[in-house]
Amino acid sequence: MKFRALILVVILVGGFWFLTSHYSPLVDGHAMGNLFSPKNADSTMHLTEADAAPVYDAEEQNNIAIYKRVLPSVVNITSTALVYNFFFQQVPQQGQGSGFVLDKNGHILTNFHVIDGANRGIEVQLSNKRRYQAKVVGSDRVHDLALLQIDAPDLQPVTLADSSQLNVGQKVYAIGNPFGLNGTMTRGIISSIRSIHNQDGAPIEDAIQTDAAINPGNSGGPLLNSHGEVIGINTMIASNGADQSSGIGFAIPINTAKAVLSDLTRYGHIKRPSLGVSTYAIGPDLAEQMGIPADYGLLIQRVTPGGAAERAGLRGGNEQAYVGNTLILLGGDLIVAINDQQVTDQQDVSVIMDKLQAGDIVSVTIVRDRRKMTFKLQLTEAHDANV
Question: Which of 75, 135, 197, 284 can bridge 295 by disulfide, Cβ–Cβ 3.0-4.6 Å?
């Protein structure tokens, strides 16, 4: 009896083992697994893996090459200023931006607004994470440019391109530190070449508009062409108050920076040329009211004592009048052209002056007593808001 009971136990155990490990009932023609295992369970995982590293196409290879070559030249700039809080206590406030290395002597180009007000120091961080204190060599608020210098070994300068032959549609790359995210590269095209005004209202001629993502922290960083050469300095975005990229960013053309770098290095500021006059732009309606035989021009309000205009014999106004709520002076000369280029407002003068230097001789065409006259002026250095 004991032997029969043992045989029965073995048969029951063996049957249970067989059912749970081998038997898979069919439901609608599909095996559903054994009776006691989870429904549709699979005990193995099969991954599909690539046989080799990916092969990059030509465009990807160029993107990667530009990033690797230029990244060591791009820096993160932190400026620190002491400001007063709500309780009139002085507290440090930091701002961030980007910049790029110009030469092995440690000269770095950035925007003026990146370092403006930094009364407690400027720190530059290289791509290798090393930090250096920077000194301001020179600055130009009008063009929103600043030249810094650090003492660091083995610096890798950028290559500067010629920005005079840019075309809408060509590829561009921006490398910088948006929102403090170091070493970020974005890509786009040149959307337009247009004149705009910077944050202080000063004109930026031939500014490069791009749809490459530019955000706070990109200011002062390089805008590059498809060869990795610098064509502009990223400076501002059109954000409609959102303070982030909306696909419309602007860069100062690198040729503008080239034109002022020599003065920044030698004098610490731009020796901006000046006619030595303050002016008021008029249009056809105002000209008709004043009886001026011209539809446009800059009416001289005052001449700067000892300035180019005064030395050449140009005259300012002497009769007060109001245009709306604005007080102007009538009776002065009306500037209509400089070097035979028509001028209708102060921006036209700025365009011409950007190509000249203090000491240059220019011809200025005016209207005086209903007659056109031309004077030769030797430009002086600007020290105020005069043109």
Answer: 284
Q: Give 136's contacts (C-beta < 8 A, 6+ positions apart).
A: 115, 122, 146, 147, 148
Q: Which fold has domain 163-267?
A: Thrombin, subunit H (2.40.10)
pLDDT digits (tens, 9 = 90+) for 199-241: 777 778 789 999 999 998 999 999 999 999 999 999 988 765 5
Percent of the chain topping pLDDT 70 = 83
Beta strands 277-282; 273-274: pairing state: unpaired
Spatial separation of the C-alpha atoms in residues 333 and 315, rounded to whole Å: 6
Q: How far, in Å, CA of 158 to CA of 70, rounded?
A: 7
The predicted-structure confidence for 24-42, as pLDDT tens digits, reads as follows 555 455 555 555 555 555 5
CB contact set of 93 (below 8 Å; sequence gap of 6+): 80, 81, 82, 83
- The hierarchical CATH code for the domain 273-381 is 2.30.42.10
* Alpha carbon distance 358, 356 (integer Å): 7
Question: Is the pLDDT reported for residue 14 higher than 90?
Answer: no
The reply to whether domains 68-149 and 163-267 share a CATH topology is yes
Domain 68-149 CATH (choose: 2.40.10.10, 1.20.1290.10, 2.60.40.60, 2.170.120.12): 2.40.10.10
Domain extent listing, the chain: 68-149, 163-267, 273-381
* Residue 140 phi, psi dihedral angles, 5° rounding: -140, 100
Helix, strand, or coil (residue 337) = strand
Which is higher by pLDDT, 332 or 34?
332
Residues found in the chain: 387
Catalytic residues: 113, 144, 219
pTM of the model: 0.70
Give how far the C-alpha of residue 107 lies from the chain's centroid of Cα atoms, to the nearest Å.
18
Contact residues for 12 (Cβ-Cβ < 8 A; gap 6+): none
Which pLDDT score, from 0 to 100, does residue 385 have? 47
Angle CA 321–323–329, to nearest 5: 35
As a whole number of angstroms, the distance between CA 178 and CA 184 comes to 7
